[in-house]
Structures are given as C-alpha cells and as structure tokens.
Amino acid sequence: MHLLINTGGGDAPGLNAVIRAVTLSAVRRGFRVTGIRRGYAGLLNEYPHGLMELTPDVVRGIADRGGTILGTVNKGHPFEYPTRDSGHTVLADLSEIVMQRYREIGADCLIAVGGDGSLRIAARFAEKGMRVIGVPKTIDNDLDSTHVTFGFDTAMSFATEAICRLHPTAESHNRVMVVEVMGRYAGWIALYAGIAGGANVILIPEIDFDYDAVCEALRQRWAEGREFAIVVVAEGAKPVDGSLVIRGHELGKEVTLGGIGEVVAREITARTGFETRSLVLGHLQRGGSPTPSDRILALRYGAAAVRLAAEGRFNTMVSWQPPRITAVPIADAVARLKTVPLDHDALETARDLGICLGR
User: Fold this and answer.
1) What is the pLDDT of residue 53?
2) φ, ψ for residue 233 (rounded to 5)?
3) What's the confidence (pLDDT) of residue 84?
4) Alpha helix ranges (H) inside 128-183
5) Using an 8 Å Cβ cutoff, are 48 and 62 in contact?
6) Which of 77, 177, 212, 353 has its CA 20 to 30 A from that of 11?
C-alpha cells in the first residue's frame, strides 16, 4: 500500500509522534508512506516539492518533539482555497486538483491528522471517492467521538503550571489575576486546569457567567482575609446577555476568539476596586514536548491508523473508547463538538471545592 499523511489546522504536541508511529507501522508491513507538507498545500501550489518520503531514518527521534515535521496551515481549505484574482483574494474550490494528484501518485489512502475542521475536510474528500482515515488531534478536546484527543493533556498541563505560578505573585500583591486559556467553544482546558491549579473562579463557554456572581465570590474571599484570587476564563466564555469577544475574522475562516480575559479584568476592577491583572497564555499552550500521556496516545493512534488501512477499514476515524482503540465513521466523528456537559462531575467537583463558575 501507499499511504499519504498530512497534518492540518493548529499544531498540537504529539503530531510528530503520530507521524513516527504511522511510518514505522507501515514500513514493517512493507507499505510506502509519503508526507504532504502544510496540509493540502503539498498537493496544490507546492506540488510536487510539497511531498516528503517518510522512512524510519526520517522519523527517528521525533516522538518527543512539539510541532510537526510536515508543517501545517489553517488557511488551506481545498474546497475554499485562498487564491488571487484581479488583485483580490477569493476562495476557489480546488478539491478536484487534490483528487487528481492523489490518483496520479498512486495513493491508496490518506491519513488525515487534525481537529474538527481538518477532519470535516477529510470527510468531504471521502464523499468524493478518496480513501481516508482520520486521527483526532486538538488541544481543545472538542471531538465528540473519542474519549480524548492528543494535545489536550499537554496544553492542560502547561495551563495548570502557569496558574500555579501565579498564586504567589497574586498573593504578594493582593491582586486578582485573570488567566485566559484556549479551547474555542469548549471549556475543557479552563475547567481541568482551573481545578488542578486551584483557581477561585472558572468561566467556560458552556455556562454564561454573571459579573455580579463573580464579583460577589471575590468580595467574599476578601472578607475571609484571602485578599488575592485567580480567575481562569476560556476564550469562548461570555457573560449573560453578552457576546463573544472576537479578535478578528479572516476570509473563509471562523472568527478568531480572544480578549475576554482583559474584558473580565477591567470589569472586576470597576465593580470591586480590587487591583486586577490579566494575561493570555495563547500559543504557549500549543508548544513544547508532549506529555508522556499525549505521546503514548499519539503513538497508539498512529499505529491504529495503519492497522485500519491494512484491514481496509477506510473512511473512519481512530477513536479511543477506553480501554481500547477502535474506529468510528469519519462522518459521525465530525457531526458535533464535544463540549462540557452541564452534569459533568468535574463541574460538581469545582462547586464542592468552593470554586465559582460564574452563576
């Protein structure tokens, strides 16, 4: 078999581990593996130089490295590809070019490693006749058809460490520190890192928050003699009767979230008079070496993808349903986002610990 593999969307710790696992697992079966650089660009404007032959030598020692040796892009939607026309950027459907080159190079299957956006693209190619196998990647942990995505544990662990580092400086200055974390429309990073890091307030997209409730929780803390606090807010959180805070909107892309941390900090100061500072962890959550948990999960996903290809189980996504790695139809995998259920025990845990969830 000739397998292709690409990595799309935002980078996440563990991508290189998947690439290594796919390569070694395939070569052991006598398969050939070709990497596509920068999402689908290696089959479009960068073709044929955008292809990379993957061998055991090429992937040696990369499992613990962050990023991806294939590169990635979140502006390369082949069905809505940015092109220049008469001096303007327009979106063009170049999917047939991708299909033609997929056939030209004699590929048997594409292993698409990505989050909901990248896997939706893969699902559309499956409808056009391409054999695809998806591998779930996102630090946001918002893919519904798998227990967890690789990249989440590393991002959550980094956010937890950052929150823990803020406790002594918040206490030293009697400040409220507001920490904005990623997650888009899902609150997994904020909730888990906030609980693990000992936050006093956690604001997530699934629960619209009330400034009165947040400020009352902070005033109560001051009244008890604890004159500092940590507030963790997900980038997709919004107040009751409010709207998302958006940094920008690019052609053909979803809105870029960001800035709610600063808004919350200003409102806390205005309502309570407490000195408040905010910081955004941003892309630091995507960087660094994957945690052992993410590394192992990524290696398991990559090896499982090759097994599915060998068994002819195409148009599926590798899925971890503890204790086993299995597969689900890729169309089902991207049907909906996995957000924090309102009856999740982590929310109950937060409340039992006295953490304010904004209501």
Assistant:
1) 97
2) -130, 130
3) 82
4) 152-173
5) no
6) 177
Please tell me the predicted confidence (pLDDT) of residue 252: 57
* Domain ranges, ordered by start, for the chain: 2-150+290-333, 153-287
Share in percent of the chain as helix, strand, coil (round to 5): 40, 25, 40
Report the distance separating Cα 115 and Cα 72, nearest Å.
Answer: 12
Q: Which residues of the chain have pLDDT under 50?
A: none
CATH of domain 2-150+290-333: 3.40.50.450
What global pTM score does this model have?
0.94
Burial class of 58 by CB neighbour count within 10 A (0 to 12, 13 to 18, 19+) = middle
Indicate the length of the chain as a whole number.
359
As a CATH number, domain 153-287 is: 3.40.50.460
The amino acid present at 63, given as its one-letter code, is: A
Question: Rounded to whole angstroms, how far apart are CA atoms 121 and 127?
Answer: 10
Catalytic residue flag (residue 140): yes
Q: Which element (helix H / strand E) includes 216?
A: helix 211-223
Q: Which residues pair with 256 in a beta bridge?
A: 248
Distance of CA 52 to the CA centre of its chain: 25
Choose, from 85, 108, 116, 140, the residue flagged as catalytic. 140
